[in-house]
Amino acid sequence: MQPANGTEGLRTAGPGERWVLRVRQTDGSASDLVGWLVGIDRNDGSDGAGEEVAVVDGAVDPAVAGDEAPRWRVPLTDVVVARRAPAARGGPDVGRTPPDVLERLGVEAWAVELEPLGDWTLRAASGFTGRANSCLAVGDPGLPVPEAAAAIEAYAAAHGIAPMAQVVTGSDEDAALRAAGWAETYVATDVLATRLADLLGDRPADPRVGVDEELTDAWRAAFDAYRSSDVDPAVVTRLLDGRRPRAFARVEVDGEVVAVARGHLSGGWLGVAGVWTRPEHRRQGLGTAVVLALAGWAARRGARWCYLQVETANGPAHGAYAALGFVHHHRYHYLAP
Questions:
Q1: Could you tell me which residue ranges the N-acetyltransferase domain spans (predicted)?
Q2: Helices then strands (H, E): number in the chain?
Q3: 187-211: buried (b, 16+ CB within 10 Å) or exposed (e) per residue?
Q4: From CA 52, how far away is CA 44, in angstroms rounded?
Q5: pTM, rounded to two decimals
Q6: 244 — phi, psi (to 5°)?
Q7: Same-domain pairing of 70 and 130
């Protein structure tokens, strides 16, 4: 029979599981410790003697540059109660976050040059991707919309890119720019979202996946195979390297990176982009594996939700993400003069 305090469950738990331990303090009180189980060890490091201890990693604070996860060694005899916790912190339903708020949170996730225009944000990256080379038009630009439209055109001309505005479909900004003579261009995109706790569920960590917090040459080579471009490679590097905290998930086979994804954290949200698997390695679950690895990385940094963008017309991708629990949050498209 499993002991009432749950420590037997700790002994059989898998590495990476999230647990809550109520730990007895020296003054007789108790406090809760929440973290990810590394394993069960002995306090003297030997195999045959010594007190059993649970080795647990705490969360990383993404607001502190270079912060590392604390690691605790908790004697099992000090554990009053142990119970398995959800893989990530809970939180309100993703629908509680308005589209304009989520779009603003994602501004720095995929950007090179940024310049404010009231609440709007002008963006440029030498033409590499629509999202990084359009004005995010959400909120009040601080001047009449026709004048804001002219400012977008001037900014685009100065940066050698085509003038475009990204708007939430059906929003006031969408209607106002259309009234100013702008029309839909480029591809419509759906933003899908889910809670990290729901995404991770009880799925164990996939040992095939590694997550780096620095952009490596091998990861970059795989990304270039996925999205080749004649844009200056240094600009693409600036976009991918981006603004911290961000991470790069990868799967290697015979020394070659065959699946990648990139994650960025902002306001408790993980933004996932660049999910790709080499064609000869598809249908092995690698795309799912890299997304889940980033979700685990984000959960250890206090994130609660995840979003990603999928072209509206990409039915297979929609089906795959729906199977993981992602739901439609909102749609955006681009307008041009």
A1: 209-337
A2: 9, 16
A3: eebbbbbbbbbbbbeeeebbebbeb
A4: 9
A5: 0.92
A6: -75, 155
A7: no
The answer to whether residue 1 is domain-embedded is no
Last residue of a domain, one of 148, 172, 187: 187
Per the CB < 8 A criterion, the answer to whether 307 and 269 are in contact is yes
- Looking up residue 318, the CATH number of its domain turns out to be 3.40.630.30
E strand intervals along 196-245: 209-212
Q: Say yes or no: 151 and 279 in one domain.
A: no
Give the end-to-end CA distance of the chain in Å, rounded to a whole number: 71
Q: Are 52 and 103 in contact (CB under 8 A)?
A: no
- Asked whether the beta carbons of 290 and 261 are under 8 A apart, the reply is yes
Residue 213: phi and psi, rounded to 5, are -100, 10
| pLDDT per residue as tens, the chain (337 positions) | 344 577 888 888 988 899 999 999 989 899 999 999 999 998 875 555 678 999 999 998 877 767 788 999 999 999 999 999 999 999 999 999 999 999 999 999 999 999 999 999 999 999 999 999 999 999 999 999 999 999 999 999 999 999 999 999 999 999 999 999 999 998 899 999 999 999 999 888 899 999 999 999 999 999 999 988 899 999 999 999 998 999 999 999 999 999 999 999 999 999 999 999 999 999 999 999 999 999 999 999 999 999 999 999 999 999 999 999 999 999 999 999 9
Burial of 61 (0-12, 13-18, 19+ CB in 10 A): middle
From start to end of 76-202, where are the E strands?
79-84, 113-117, 120-124, 135-136, 165-168, 183-195
Q: For residue 125, give the DSSP letter.
A: S
CB 261 within 8 A of CB 295: no
Q: Which residues contact 141 (CB under 8 A, 6 or more apart)?
A: 117, 118, 119, 120, 148, 151
CA-to-CA separations, 129 to 177, 298, 306, in angstroms, rounded: 21, 25, 21
Nearest Cα to Cα of residue 111 among 91, 129, 87? 129
Picking from 26, 52, 84, the residue at the C-terminal end of a domain is 84
